[in-house]
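Standup, Tuesday
Yesterday: got the pipeline producing structure tokens again.
Today: sanity-check two examples.
Blockers: none.

Example 1:
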Amino acid sequence: MMQQKTMLPQYMRQFACTGTACEDTCCRSWAIFIDKSTYKNYQKVSDSTLKKRLDQNVERVKVNASDQNYAIMKLNDQGACSFLTEEKMCGIQATLGESYLSTTCATYPRNINIVDDTIEVSASMSCPESARLALLNKDPMEFDVIESNNNYKAISSLVRTTASNTIEAHFWEIRIFVISLLQNRNYNLTDRMIILGLFCEKLEESISNEKFELISSLIEEYKVKIANNSFAPLLGQMPQAHHISMQLLSRMVELRSGKGQLNARYKALLDEVIQGFGLEKNDSEYILGRYKEGLELIFAPVLREQEYILENYIVNYVFEKLFLFKKGYSAFQQYIQLVSLLSLIKFHIIGRGLEDGEISPETCVSVIQILSRSLEHNEGYLKQLIGFVEDLKLNPLALMVILIKN
């Protein structure tokens, strides 16, 4: 098999599925699609008992089917794959071997993108083991380029940087600038995210006006300003509005509760958050007071002592999602998604911390993993977040700053 240039975060070199030892399972509480090739293989299975189960539990997709989403696995009454064993192993793999796994099952939690001739491999933070490896490292996330012969079939996105007069032509300078900014520990993470928002707003202007030739000079301008601490006066003037932040986040949580199935671990976390904030009291003044208390007693120590966890989450997100290059979304809409997800992580960390009394690094990672599993894989909800912010008809950057600072 031909060797291919592959870029990956260093934690991927350590990753291996923990199998039955995993506290979660990737075979429950979400749609499991079967690709066309695997479906055809299932039709040829000679074991009569297994073939009958496959026929009963694998259904063709009838609307918007594709070679990747050709069929779908029925879930049982517990919301799990019909072939998940009591030992939390795959019954299909145990009987037929790894080659009979669907592309989805064989790939997860890996995410595969292609940029020109380079395959990019990262992992979703919805997997407990990949989250631990990626987020608990106190050093800035680093990336390696290696030669690999892995034959990945599930390609999430493709970027070609060779076309002139496009944002893709500036892919590498934008990505390097964004990751360098996010890992610049001379600034606290809150300020880094606000500067990123200012940059995304300016980048959006260049893209909308098709002034792609201005992107390089915009990046250089921001590099100089960051090096000279020129953003300090502006960052010091950014507004604080805890009541607006609390209202926005409460509504975002409500939107998720009504959008698709909630898995048991997210339900348990949400119950803790409800208890921590006292949301069941329906007393806005009390809830706001608890939120302010949580910011000071729970989240401020997290930012002081565990900021690297959130930094690693954001950097992995930027790499995994091809941040600012996601098809169908504007640059600033992608920023809205990132800030919304980060703010929801903060909200749940505070709520759980108020209920438990403290947040350890391991608990912080657990909250991120649970939310990543519940939120990031729900494209309908991610679109709804953008729509919710845009429908408010307020300055979107100001709203994002309020979420970040509060």
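Example 2:
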Amino acid sequence: MLSNNFIDGGVTGVSMLLASAFKLPLSVLLLVINLPLVALVRVAAGYAGATS
């Protein structure tokens, strides 16, 4: 999507902007930004709620 100058929203959009600005791999940024959110959901919903 970056080649068409089209930016998505949410975590993907933030990752795409950071990848463009800092020349980092998009896949790494998606993982780095999503992991804290997954951890937050696990804590907020309890371990069973996040895995089922």
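Quick observation on example 2: Residues 2-51 form one domain. The longest helix spans residues 26-45.
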